[in-house]
Write a structure and sequence with these properties.
The protein is α+β, with helices and mostly antiparallel strands. The protein has helices at 28-41, 128-141, and strands spanning 46-48, 58-61, 73-83, 87-94, 97-107, 109-115, 121-127. The strands form two sheets. Strands 1-2-3-6-7 form a five-stranded antiparallel β-sheet, with helices on both faces. A two-stranded antiparallel sheet has the order 4-5. A hairpin with a 5-residue loop joins strand 6 and strand 7. The longest helix is centred in the first third of the chain and has 14 residues, at 28-41. The protein binds zinc ion.
Amino acid sequence: MAVRPLVLHPDARLRQVAAPVPQGAVGMDALIGDMFDTMYAAYGRGLAAPQVGVGQRVFVMDAGWKAGPKTPCAFINPVIVARSGATETLTEACLSIPEQEVTVTRPAQVQVTWTTLGGQDHSAWFSGFEAACIQHEIDHLDGVLILDHGS
Ligand code: ZN
């Protein structure tokens, strides 16, 4: 596995809508392995494929590794299928926008469906930092950056 170069704002690749990953797509293990290496090397907790120049609907997350053991989680073709009415406001950073933080208000809980690297379909509710991170990363898959959420 390898650390890939990060795509930095204002690179136009960050503004493209990523394409769904076809079922049985090859090379996903290598891509996701590299995305974890890149995320950990950059001291991040989430990374979307467009941030390494790949226009596919994939992101990786490890919300807790800075405070405990690594719990890597990869999401292929993630979709937010439900959102709480309650919102939460957090200060967010982005590996593609160095040294800039933006205060973003998002639904506090989201229900997400996705496919795992092993090809299994999953659905789960997330809250707290994980919910914000997932919405941040899915924004990347739609060409949206935290700068767009600024007041
Ligand atoms: Zn980001």
